[in-house]
Amino acid sequence: MGQLKQLLPVDGQPMVRRVTQTVCAAGLAQVIVVLGAQADRVREAVHGLPVEIVINEQWAAGMSHSLRAGLEAIRPDIQAALIVLADQPRLTPALLQKLVSRYQATRAAIVAPFYQGRQGNPVLFDRTLFAELMAIEGDQGGRSLLTRYPEQIERVEVDDPAVVLDIDTREEYEQLHHRHRRSG
To answer: By CB atoms within 10 Å of each CB, which of 21, 52, 78, 105 scores lowest?
Structure first.
């Protein structure tokens, strides 16, 4: 995209701040922000929010290193991790709470949102899968566990396309603004 997408403005603030505020508003027990590229600039973008900052020095080695860094920082009393991506600025606290509530009701190993049959993000993983998540290598997150354990996925059907919308290209970023202007 030519620049760090986490710092692109969404509704007048850096995308990473918007996503982090959403996570904080969901009332989770612990919020960890993993920083990699341009960590100082991204840290500044989330300054003042009630989060723990973890620096992933190996960010260039792929997403798996950020996942591992975040998991290692989770307090021992926390039973599950909701892995939220910084490039999903249209997530809502209610959607995150819905995933957590389903986990609390079922204690499923994996809780994933689905929109019109498509699996989306964020995905919640029970602590029993943390070791396997930390063993993942390269530029991938927990998707391989969803493939490996399809019978352990608690599907949460949602009517919000935010779970399948992420920003990976300049065109997707421009569409985000266009959609928001039309609906706002």
So the answer is: 105
- Cβ-Cβ contacts under 8 Å for 48 (sequence gap 6 or more): none
- Please count the other Cβ atoms lying within 10 Å of the Cβ belonging to residue 108: 18
Instruction: Report the distance separating Cα 129 and Cα 36, nearest Å.
Output: 24
In angstroms, the CA 139 to CA 61 distance is 7
How many Cβ atoms are within 10 Å of 157's Cβ, its own excluded? 9
pTM of whole model > 0.70? yes
Domains of the chain with CATH codes: 5-183 (3.90.550.10)
pLDDT digits (tens, 9 = 90+) for 125-169: 999 999 999 999 877 788 899 999 999 999 999 999 889 877 666
